[in-house]
Write a structure and sequence with these properties.
There is one protein chain. The protein is an alpha+beta fold and about 180 residues long. The chain folds into two domains: about 5-80, S16 Ribosomal Protein, Chain: A, CATH 3.30.1320.10; about 95-145. It contains four helices and five strands. The protein has helices at about 55-65, 70-80, 100-155, 160-180; strands at about 5-10, 15-25, 35-40, 50-55, 70. A five-stranded mixed beta sheet has the order 4-3-2-1-5. A hairpin with a 2-residue loop joins strand 1 (about 5-10) and strand 2 (about 15-25). The longest helix has about 60 residues, at about 100-155.
Length: about 180
């Protein structure tokens, strides 16, 4: 008979509670066991001392007669200092799966495309702004060139004289009203 120290699940739905038991390895997980060696309540905080309770003397007895341990129970025993557990090396542990890699590549491609469109839009926004500055500068220079031409035309033309005559004419009736009133 091969004896294994393992967890036997109890508790309610979504409220697990485990017994640490010595059981025949051929029996079902929650089936008959030889002896209860402790408890594990994953619902308690990790630093709570009642989370894992172990009967060290009986565990040492079962290990002495050749019992094996499940991975989870081996972790508990390592933390308690009862049995040293060799750390496992899994170099692919932090590596994402194939689907996650594909999603990351698609996301990177979309991000690169968005950056390219943003750069293109920025260049387009900067280019018209520069052209507008050039056009504004040209527009400012053009009226400056036209203004002296108008002034020379205005100096020689009698167009301003009638405007000057109209202004005093408008003032004259206002002066007549003041003198009458």
């Amino acid at each position: 008979m091969a004896v294994t120290l393992r967890l036997s699940r109890g508790g309610a739905k979504k409220r697990p509670y485990y017994r640490i038991v010595a059981a025949d390895s051929r029996k079902p997980r929650d089936g008959r066991y030889l002896e209860q060696l402790g408890t594990y309540n994953p619902m308690l905080a990790k630093d709570d001392p009642a989370r894992v309770k172990l009967n060290e003397d009986r565990i040492r007895y079962w290990l002495g007669v050749g019992a094996t341990t499940s991975d989870r129970v081996a972790r508990f025993l390592d933390v308690a200092g009862i049995k040293e557990r060799a750390p496992k090396n899994n170099p692919k542990k932090g590596e994402p799966g194939e689907a996650a890699k594909e999603r990351a590549e698609e996301k990177a491609a979309k991000l690169a495309e968005a950056e390219e469109t943003a750069k293109a839009a920025e260049e387009e926004a900067n280019a018209p702004a520069e052209e507008a500055v050039v056009e504004e500068a040209a527009a400012e220079e053009a009226p400056a060139e036209e203004a002296p031409a108008e002034e020379t035309a205005a100096e020689g033309a009698p167009a301003e004289e009638p405007a000057a005559e109209e202004a005093p004419a408008e003032k004259a009736p206002a002066e007549e009203e003041k003198s009458e009133g």
